[in-house]
Every structure is written in structure tokens, then in C-alpha cells.
From TrEMBL:
Keyword list, A-Z: Exonuclease, Hydrolase, Nuclease
Any one GO MF annotation of this record: exonuclease activity
Top-level taxon: Bacteria
One Pfam family cited in the UniProt record for this chain: RNase_T
Segments forming domain Exonuclease: 59-240
Record protein name field: 3'-5' exonuclease
Annotated organism of origin: Zhongshania aquimaris
Phosphoprotein is among the record's keywords: no
Length: 250
């Protein structure tokens, strides 16, 4: 995960209360009719679970990208990590991790962050070589990500480059959940009065609040697993397992 700056993070962290709900079942049915690429069409044809499905019964996949920068219009995905999961189990044995050759040049700033160098991508497969497998892994599942706009925008942009078709999908954003429960208005007012910074909702800081172990950051697979564990902790701490998925997806 290529982390954004603190000021940008503060602006973009959205609470669940402000999340706009969408009829995902209807949207998938519509997109299944218009999509041309076979694997993308199959992704939509699989459909999406009912909005009323309790969290305990939701099939999920935690997803994380490392990228060459933060702008999907000019930067590219350089690695992908994903792990199937549910609220009760993380299926590490079914996880996937790819390093892919980016369409845009690696920047020194991004190399410092994720450690993926020019030599590492020299013989890496093109993103187009993993599209079918990636879409198959996402099919029928709800994506879980920390700061979901990164995964949404970069995957959409990557598919537009390769397929001339984008992608839409519901996401459970662990950063948005953390903003909802750890940035309560009264707490943040007191922090401000005491001259303290806003509560951090970065992945590692969020995990610390739930006493989860520290993992080395900026590896796509490790960050996906870290995100999966965080969601489980958030749900156990703040939500009932009977909570409908519509309460936390967008």
C-alpha cells in the first residue's frame, strides 16, 4: 500500500455515515449486459450478495496494491496481494501475490516505499497476464481494502488501459470503519483543544489499537492480510455479526 500524506488522509477519510448506498445487485445485472471482456462479464454475471446478508455470511477478499505513485491516470500497479476471507477465517493458503511490469516508469520515491526495483519488474509478467486470474479471485466476493479509493481507482484505470473497459464493485473500507469508530467527534474536539494531532487511521496505527501484531509494511500481500485481520477485529469490537453488509460497504 502506497500511503498518502497525513493531510490528504485527513481530507479523504470518510465516515460510514456519509457513505452513499448503491443498488449493487441491480448495477451488476446492468453491467453484465454491456461488458464485452469474457472474464469481466463473468465477474458481473456472478452477481453480488444481498445487501441484507449478515457479516458472518459474507464471502470477502482482502486486496492491496503497490503502485508507482498515487495518480491512477498516470501511475500503474506494480504488485497485487489478495487473500480470501470471512469474518471468522482468513484463508492464507489461497492467497495470491503478483509483481507485474508497470506501464509507467518506477519513481525513486515509490521504490523507497515498497522496495520493488527496476530489476524486480524487468522479467515480471504484464498486468494483462493476470487479469483473468485476478477477476476470478474477486468473483462473487466483497473486496476489503484500507483506503478503498486506491484499489478502486487503480484497478479501474488498469482495466481501461488493457481492456478499454473499467470495473465497478462494492468495497468494505477498513479505513472508513476506523474513521467512524476511532474519530468520534467529542474525542477529536478534546484532542484539538489539547493541541494533539487527529487520531491516525493508517493501517499500522489502526491495528495497534486492537493489539494486533506489527507487520512490515508496503508488501501487497502482507498489507492485504493486515487489512483482513483489522476488519475481523473491528467487527468483533464494534459490530454484531448479524449486522447487514450494507451497513459497512460502499
Amino acid at each position: 500500500m502506497f500511503y498518502i500524506g497525513k493531510n490528504q488522509l485527513a481530507r479523504q477519510g470518510q465516515t460510514l455515515a456519509k457513505t452513499k448506498q448503491l443498488d449493487w445487485s441491480g448495477r451488476f445485472a446492468s453491467l453484465a449486459k454491456t461488458s464485452k471482456y469474457p472474464s469481466l462479464k463473468a465477474f458481473y454475471q456472478q452477481g453480488v450478495i444481498s445487501a441484507s446478508t449478515p457479516l458472518l455470511d459474507v464471502p470477502m477478499v482482502a486486496l492491496d496494491f503497490e503502485t508507482t505513485g498515487l495518480d491512477p491516470s498516470r501511475d500503474s500497479i506494480v504488485s497485487i496481494g489478495l487473500v480470501p476471507m470471512s469474518i471468522s477465517r482468513i484463508r492464507c493458503g489461497e492467497s495470491k501475490h503478483w509483481i507485474v511490469k508497470p506501464k509507467t516508469n518506477l519513481h525513486s520515491a515509490s521504490v523507497v516505499v515498497h522496495g520493488i526495483t527496476h530489476s524486480a519488474v524487468a522479467d515480471a509478467p504484464d498486468f494483462s497476464n493476470v487479469i483473468d486470474t485476478l477477476l476470478g479471485c474477486l468473483r462473487g466476493k466483497i473486496v476489503v481494502a484500507h483506503h478503498a479509493p486506491i484499489e478502486r481507482r487503480f484497478l479501474h484505470a488498469a482495466l481501461m488501459r488493457h481492456l478499454q473497459e473499467g470495473i465497478e464493485f462494492p468495497v468494505i473500507d477498513t479505513m472508513a470503519i476506523e474513521a467512524q469508530f476511532s474519530r468520534r467527534k467529542s474525542q477529536e474536539i478534546w484532542r484539538s483543544l489539547l493541541g494533539r494531532q487527529r487520531t491516525s487511521i493508517r493501517l499500522s496505527d489502526s491495528r495497534t489499537r486492537y493489539h494486533l501484531p506489527y507487520y512490515r509494511q508496503h508488501n501487497a500481500l502482507t498489507d492485504a492480510i493486515a487489512c483482513a485481520e483489522l476488519l475481523q477485529a473491528q467487527c468483533v469490537t464494534h459490530l454484531s455479526l448479524d449486522t447487514p453488509v450494507s451497513a459497512i460497504w460502499s
